[in-house]
Amino acid sequence: MKIKSINLSYFRNFNLVKEDLGSELTLVVGKNAKGKTSLLEAIYAILAGTGFRESKELELINFDKNEAVISAFFKDSDDDILMQIHLGKTEKERVVKRFFINKTQKPQKKFKDTTPQGVLFAPEHIQIITGSPSRKRRYFDDVLSKDDQNYKRRLRNYEEALRKRNKILENYIDLYKLKAEIDFWDKYLIEQAEYILSRRQKYIDFLNTENTLESKIFNVKYIKNMFSLEELNQNRDREYFLRRTLIGPQKDDYIILMNKNERAQEVNLFGSRSEQRMALFWLKRNELLYFEKNSGMKPILLLDDIFSELDDENRELVMKVVATYQTVATTTEEEVKDLSLVPEVIIRL
After folding, report:
1. Residue ranges of domains in the chain, CATH in brackets
2. Full DSSP string of 30-56
3. Which of 48, 85, 229, 232 has a CA between 20 and 30 Å from the CA of residue 194?
4. Quick one: what percent of the chain has pLDDT higher than 90?
């Protein structure tokens, strides 16, 4: 399934926009602050059901409007499918989203199961390699949540229960009552954590199987923080003293390794800037492979202003993947002249 066109009504800074997309490569060309990333985000939203910028969903709707609509035609074999998301403001400054397939309202899950996945590659994603453990966890959780709604639900359950457990630890007065109250949350959290940890491990195993990118070999070392009755008992006195939960998946870490000089070295510490970007692209390449394997549909690759960030080696790697997947990329007029590719469609903003 490929996206044929995107139609926007009052999405972010746009009023009314309709753009046709190529079945292979579409370049969105323009100067900064002209809406290139907003258009890319609209395409991402029709695939994922949400935007990709870390801002309030309210900002997806044009400032002086109460509703925005994202519409897209997809080509599936010989049929065209119209997918639409209606975003409406509420009186409490929240956003309500409604999902439509061929103008019939559908549950969000049915909508997302119908569209291919979108894989975004942007310069700021380098933080997945060089950033904090929480930034890495957020990335891996996002990938797994797109593919597994049960994982998304259990992760949300775990985070909500963890907040309640920490609140109990923070405010307890009577130790006997604390033990009776916290026992329920311990059992509940153990159940959620088992699933979360097993799915994270399964994805890491997949990455470490698909560990080669050209001549480079990458791996992920998964530092798992267990939440089990045994671990709880070992840490219980410290938790009571410090009044917070000390163990669990919220403390997991991921170390990205690259074979260098016949040794596995941490890319964030010992890799060059180019090697760090190559490690990031290895992760993104495997996102594409993972979603395609699990859904049977080729994902759509979205590249946001990355070309100026890449050296020749990394650019060549990206071009090889672009040739395999439908791709929409934003870039500047100056960069178009330097790209060794011929886009099927150019959108100028």
Report:
1. 2-116+299-348 (3.40.50.300), 127-270 (1.20.1050.90)
2. --TTSSHHHHHHHHHHHHHSS-SSSS-
3. 48
4. 77
